Amino acid sequence: MKIGIAGCGIVAEKSHLPTFPVAEDLERTVLYDPKPDHVRALAARTGFALGTSDWDAFWAAGPDVLLITSPASRHLANIRDAAAHGIREILCEKPLTDTDAGDEEVLRIVRENRIRLVPCLCYRFGDISIRVRDAVRAGEIGEVRSLRLVFNWDCHGKHRPDLPGGVNKRRHLRMIEGGPLLDCGIHLVDLLTFWTDALPVSCHGHGAWADEYEAPDHVWAHIDLENGAHAMVETSFSYGHTCSNRLSRYGYEIIGTHGVIRFDRDANLFEIQNGRGSRTLPIGAIKDFGAFDAAYIEAVRSGDFSQLPTAEDAARAGRMVREATRQAVARHRKAEG
Question: pTM score > 0.90 for this model?
Fold first, then answer.
């Protein structure tokens, strides 16, 4: 399998490439990035035969498995080009695209061209998520009725004195693209279905603004699931974003008819409480790119994609987070008159 990666920014360089599977049937063929010096150096460092800023040269190298790690605004164009070049295997970073219409177009393209597209919803493969799912399926807390998922952080801070202009460009771009709910919260919304096997059916969004972006930098999404459970997903890019110390709050609470699962990363707590008492669970990774990429490659080999998220899963979660963000923005505009 000839591997090609389109878009070699921080996600590809720091997350996928360091742990991507190495095997005799995997050929590290080609990397594309608009920064020529960067992509050539990255290819040399990671064993890829070619690093190029020429899009035609990328396709001429003949990849047959494509990883899309470009910005969300480029995903649809990348997928269109992949279809035109006969690619049938795609691993795409989240979100699928930056609009609901874009997601629907992706679903149409992959359906009509028989492309197997897997979104990189890698939180499903974290140790924490797997243990929560297993406990829920084993009935350790009865039927799930309420969920609270929190991911509050500063997205590496607002101010970067070491960068031109002193602004954290990565955080700035994520805010322009839609804010923390779209960037981080999409993983949490996906986990709701992964844990409960129930689809989200409606949502309500509320936001707060510490910065002057259209999207809120702190968002709450209230989501109703088809099984009658309710979830609150809270995400922030302004939790300590101007503080000298790095701050974060990350945790899950899953409340059932017969118990509670609690995970608090900051308190180093992971436990199940029910009528039989308390059980402490081992704390592992929240997300796992290596396990996800390995499972993806094995699925391509075997043809069995049943353990991986689908393009429809990503589109569904994308619709929820965008709708919640839209509602928060609409309430904000109304309040401002």
Answer: yes
